[in-house]
Specification:
mainly alpha; Arc Repressor Mutant, subunit A; Four Helix Bundle (Hemerythrin (Met), subunit A); 2 domains; two-stranded antiparallel ribbon; 10 helices
Length: about 240
């Protein structure tokens, strides 16, 4: 019997793992612009890494424009908003339109399935959380608050589907859509998202799996259509 070949593993440095973790948390809306990371000692302990490793990760995130560090008693690490104009973002997305639409197709399949499975598995506590997130979207006064509530809604449903692979897939797609969603008109985005989330929630409350799946699929398709319209309009961009 032939022996299998052994390939050298490319194990990332500890700070790189922390960078990926924190960047993903920002993309998922767990940290909004203006939010601060926990104090260094507390943050390092929570992540299970050394303070030196955490500092290395923060330096990378600073270089990428995600955070800013200020020294002193009132300082800390603050999450920044994007400095890219909407026109610049639209131009960049146009160059990656195939990848963007592939993510939307990925979302369509996985989020529809997540909604269908969640409909018969959600607890009363899950439903209460979804209702609160709809209210938070309605009261959001900026992209940061909207993104947090929107991500919570989708990830709560994915978690209730009781399939770890499916939950990971939905989270991956949510993280990938962090910047593209900023290309949409914010007021229109909130209006349409509220309508769609309420339809999904009503189907989940009725424990109607097929209806929940259709409502979620319609929501994802609407987002995809809005993105395509903006990227196809020459009036948008630099």
């Amino acid at each position: 019997m032939e022996q299998g070949t052994t390939e050298r593993l490319d194990v990332p440095a500890a700070y790189a793992v922390v960078v990926d973790h924190l960047r993903r948390a920002i993309h998922l809306g767990q940290y909004a612009p203006g939010d601060k990371f926990p104090p260094e000692r507390q943050h390092a302990e929570a992540l299970g890494v050394s303070r030196v490793t955490l500092r290395g990760a923060i330096r990378v995130l600073e270089g990428e424009g995600y955070v800013k560090t200020r020294r002193g008693s009132s300082g800390g690490v603050t999450v920044l908003g994007s400095t890219e104009t909407r026109g610049q973002l639209v131009e960049r997305l146009r160059h990656n339109i195939d990848d963007l639409l592939a993510v939307q197709e990925f979302r369509l399949v996985n989020e529809r399935l997540a909604a269908e499975r969640a409909a018969t598995r959600l607890t009363a506590e899950d439903l209460d959380g979804l209702e609160r997130s709809v209210g938070q979207i309605e009261r959001a006064d900026g992209v940061g608050g909207f993104r947090q509530a929107d991500s919570f809604f989708h990830l709560q449903i994915a978690g209730a589907a009781e399939c770890e692979l499916l939950r990971d897939a939905v989270e991956d797609a949510r993280a990938a859509m962090f910047l593209p969603l900023d290309a949409l008109d914010y007021k229109l985005l909130v209006t349409e998202t509220l309508k769609d989330h309420r339809r999904v929630l009503a189907a989940l409350q009725a424990r109607d799996a097929a209806r929940a799946g259709r409502a979620m699929a319609a929501h994802v398709r609407r987002t995809s259509e809005q993105l395509q319209q903006i990227l196809a309009d020459p009036a948008h961009g630099s």
